[in-house]
Specification:
mainly alpha
């Protein structure tokens, strides 16, 4: 969860900085961090509904992706130059986030199927924390 949140935080902050400046980057980073913490708590670290974490993460993933595509499509460049400029963003941000989300969802499914495996909230509840 943390790796996904950090990827998204970096991408949204960098996009907001390049488009709107420093104040917008700080505000968007704070917003993404707050939503990520809230959605992780609502997802319950695998105990609750994972949609609370997956849906905001996908939304925050599509925002910089759409902004980057819009910037590239509005630029006067050849398709090859656009592809070369978009590839690092795609392979350095979008692909890792989607792969980590797939792993997160699969690990959640496996933890629910294996009898005797206790999740973090169940362990904390046993210890009285």
């Amino acid at each position: 969860m943390l790796a996904i949140a950090l990827f998204v935080l970096h991408a949204v902050g960098a996009w907001a900085y390049s488009v709107l400046g420093v104040a917008a980057a700080i505000a968007s980073a704070a917003l993404v961090a707050a939503v990520s913490v809230f959605s992780a708590r609502m997802a319950g670290f695998g105990e609750g509904n994972t949609a609370w974490f997956v849906v905001p993460t996908l939304a925050f993933t599509t925002l910089p992706l759409a902004g980057r595509l819009w910037t590239l499509l509005s630029a006067e460049q050849t398709w090859w130059a656009r592809t070369v400029e978009f590839a690092p963003f795609l392979f350095g941000f979008a692909a890792p986030v989607l792969l980590l989300l797939a792993v997160y969802l699969e690990l959640g499914r496996r933890a629910r199927r294996v009898p005797g495996v206790q999740t973090i909230p169940a362990l904390l509840q046993q210890r009285g924390a």
